[in-house]
Amino acid sequence: PVLWGLAAEGEAGVRRVLRTLLDEYDHTLALCGGRRNADLSADMVVRQGAAWRGEAAW
User: Which residues form the FMN-dependent dehydrogenase domain (predicted)?
Assistant: First the structure.
């Protein structure tokens, strides 16, 4: 994405791409109930392709 931004709009494009990625990360973090990286934990992550076992399996 950064190279695309650079090719499309130069430095301003790179800044826009990075700002968008940061905004999307902040939004996703908020949807997970966090406000900062330290609020995340490994149990919030489900690997792609992993079978969901539910809480009873833990």
Answer: 1-46
